[in-house]
Amino acid sequence: MPDTDTRILAEVAARRDELVALTQGLVRIPTLNPPGNEYRTLVDWLGAWLEARGWTVELIRAHGAIGDSDAHPRWNLIARREGPRPGDCVHFNGHHDVVEVGEGWTHDPFAAEIDAGRIYGRGTCDMKGGLASAIIAAEAFIAACPDFAGSIEVSATADEESGGYGGVAYLAEKGYFDPARVQHVIIPEPLNKDRICLGHRGVWWAEIETHGRIAHGAMPFLGDSAIRHMGAVLEEMEATLFPLLAQKRTDMPVVPEGAKQSTLNINSIHGGEPDPAPGFTGFPAPCVADRCRIVIDRRFLIEEDIADVKDEVRALMERVKAGRPGFTYEIRDMHEVIPTMTDREAPVVTTTAAAIEKVLGARPDYVVSPGTYDQKHIDRIGRLHNCIAYGPGVLDLAHQPDEWIDIQDMVDSARVMALVLAQLL
Ligand SMILES: [Zn+2]
């Protein structure tokens, strides 16, 4: 191993306690989303930590973005270090929001307790531990190689868990991920320290509404039941759509195995009278349902076109309609994300692969995420394609009770990220 690498790895090792303390500090600020609590507290705290170590810090509120309000402002942080010589910019992006706590914890979710080499708490794994590892990697690299070329940026961004519109999407729209400004992006999401995540599948969310006509429940033949129409839609999905989706297989290395095919989830179904208000003890009224709605979550493959994905559902609705006189429906688009996959020969991929091999002594696995994350905005709005997710933590623990991160995994991934900096800068 060259001298520089040895020096860099020693600097990472010397910062083990600092890495733990930084992670604990971030976890102890409960940035729950929704609604978006304590975002300003977190960026102030982290901004002070970084400024004290020589970083230039900018705090940016996503004014007017989805989710931003005076009660819950969407605050983001971007910190930068310039090297003495010109060169590329490597950007580490971590979201600072965490999901709700939920039931079943045996550790305090915001105490960041250490137990048997792990830190416990909401957001340890997804992804404050990864964010802290990237920062420590940058600190160690700068200490070992102060005359580096180019620049390093770290961002801590809002709202990834709710789509990223008040976070990375906003910053991308403002030009922060312009390829003229930033050349390499690593998102330290918890994908395991020996895996490189190249991208994600696509998403189409839509609401389907079937129409009927209200009538007395004792004379349903005088009305037209929207729920029965929806039943026919669901039956047609079982008979034709789900089998079709199961046959569509991708060459993308999606994990887990079940997500290598197209999938569809029905998020919700609502029809007829609304649920009674809490405390209401009466019976519902006898009525034929005039409206029924489902929300579908269709995840599609890079080999599929989103127009075809939508046409499939439209064709299915038309088949149902053909067999049911007078039946009408609406399909409303809610949200869509195009699949993305970074080239394996992209510089951020090849340098991370080489660094993983040096640090862990094994070749990395290349994976694609079943769901999306902030890479979608960097790719689509920022038009920056040299981007991966790489970071410590076990993906399955994200959003679970007793979420934890292994301290050694954080140190190892910080070693990898520091060596990537040495290669790129
Ligand atoms: Zn995450």
Give me some keywords for this one.
single chain, 425 residues, alpha/beta, 6-stranded mixed beta sheet, 4-stranded antiparallel beta sheet, 16 strands, binds zinc ion
Give structural notes.
Helix content is 33%, strand content 24%. A six-stranded mixed beta sheet has the order 1-2-6-3-7-15. It has ten helices and 16 strands. It is elongated, with a radius of gyration of 25 Å. A hairpin with a 2-residue loop joins strand 4 and strand 5 (118-120). The protein is an alpha/beta fold. It binds zinc ion. Zinc ion is lined by residues 95, 126-127, 160, 189.
Q: What is the general shape?
A: elongated
Bound molecules: zinc ion
Low-confidence stretches: none
SS element count, helices: 10
Oligomer: single chain
How many β-strand stretches?
16
| Largest beta sheet: strand ordering | 1-2-6-3-7-15
Mean pLDDT: 96
Tell me the fraction of residues in β-strands, as a range. 15-25%
Structural class: alpha/beta
Topology:
Elements: H1 3-14, H2 16-27, H3 39-51, E1 56-61, E2 75-82, E3 85-95, E4 114-115, E5 118-120, H4 124-144, E6 149-157, H5 168-173, E7 184-187, E8 195-200, E9 202-211, H6 226-247, E10 263-271, E11 291-300, H7 306-322, E12 329-337, E13 340-341, H8 347-360, E14 365-369, H9 375-380, E15 387-389, E16 404-406, H10 407-424
Parallel strand pairs: 3-6, 3-7, 7-15, 8-14
Antiparallel strand pairs: 1-2, 2-6, 4-5, 5-16, 8-13, 9-11, 9-12, 10-11
Helix pairs in contact: 1-4, 1-10, 2-4, 4-10, 6-7, 8-10
Bound molecules: zinc ion.
